[in-house]
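User: I've been going back and forth on whether these two constructs are worth ordering. Before I decide, could you fold them both?

Assistant: Sure. I'll take them in the order you sent them. The first construct and its structure tokens:
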Amino acid sequence: MHRIQFIIMLRIKDLRLVRNRAELDTLPQGKLLINTINAFSYNNALKDEQFAEALMCGDALIPDGASIVKACQWLKHPNAPTERIAGWDLFTYEMERLNKKGGKVLFLGSSEKVLLLIKVRAREVYPNIEVETYSPPYKQEFSKEENNTMIEIINSSNPDLLWIGMTAPKQEKWAYKHWDRLDINCHCGTIGAVFDFFAGTMERAPLWWQRNGIEWLYRLIKEPRRMWKRYIIGNTKFLFYLVREWLIFR
């Protein structure tokens, strides 16, 4: 019964979303947890209460998916987003703003190889930003000691910007669970694949695909064996959940 109540509570119409890129300017300074949501993460949140709580209770939620934007508009969300804001958009916005004044950024997650490529590219693109990195162990669950190590690294770094990239839902749940122990005064974004995009180890869809809301299709074409469940089955499930919400709460 508890699970049914929670699933009903997690409605698309209840999501508090940043409506457009211009609203990124209105996000308050200081300690702020920024998550993203798309059809894949919404599907997973319906069966993972900790993940749902992390998304719903963060400080800002970015509509990283044309499906979320269209679903909000179709369901007549009272504050429906007017455009998709990809994790990449959040990343470039925050990095460009920090680069103007100078400061430090910490990348937590991914492999040593990817993090090294990030450092190299950041020196070229954002020369006024000092880059620190940490690659946590690649495992599903961290030990208490490993969690403490990551927290200590973040706190001792005292960054002006923090990026966490461990893939969803791991990154969102980790940041939310340990948020009170992070002694920082900056924005923190959980941005997953953006680490690889910036490092150049994964290719983003060309602009035409992005602008027409079919970046997911480009990724499916490029990596069909890895992405078919996420996009073919996942998108079908998302449509089912969308119709179900419309039928129950219209």
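The second construct, handled the same way:
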Amino acid sequence: MEIDRRAFITTLGGTTAVGLMSDEAKADALEEFMSSRLNEAVAMQQAPAAQTFPSMAELQAQIETRPTRRGVGNLFAARTGNVKRLDPMPKAPRLVDFFTMRFNGTSNHCLQSATKALRSGMSEEVVIACLLHDVVQEIIKVDHGWWGAQLFEPYISEKAAFAIRYHQALRFYADPANGYEYPDLYRRIFGHDYRPEPYIEHTYQMVRKHKWYGEARMVTVNDLYAFDPNAQVSLDVFVDIIGRHFKQPKEGLGYDNSPVAHMWRTIERPDAPL
């Protein structure tokens, strides 16, 4: 079977994530990838063109075939094999420390997203929102827009937090005028017959009329097309923007007694039993 190397690396979280994997883990992941692609190829041969994507019912039927739920954060489950020991973080951890030491599953994608936004002339508030929009998926994926906005609200502007919170709802609705089409990726993840839940529909209708709709929409635009396994990105480019738009607590994230300090400690210490 011919392997799409880019697609394979993307499923593992990008080149950075692959570089951290052992040879055994890479081999296991490759076997899983090949098996998955073979199953998809067989399904496509047996089903009509309109059924190349799974249905919601088919995806629901797969729930009890997995050891973890689909909404679990990256830090709490290994793609293959066992989880790895994490290096201890500095005494007063900064945002850049979390990017380099805890956001390994999402950092490459978010850096690509922010780089696209920066190169296309987006405002720095949109750039910082793109840089931060998905990193909360290290602890949880369900409603990650809301979780992500909550994680960052004490430290960024209200507009940037708004963009992070509502990019999740907007991604289910095409906006060709702004360069956003509904992706086939979501037909595969959610099912070809998926319809957003009422709360997402109501949220979309509200945000569509909001003065900051453009900022939230630009996060989705720069989110969808930021999965290039060969992209060269660096956090260094954004250090100054972080300095201008992120209020780093002197005590360190997780130790400033903010309403979300516990979330940062969870990311720092995901192996704590209680």
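Notes on the second construct follow. The longest helix spans residues 23-46. The mean pLDDT is 86.
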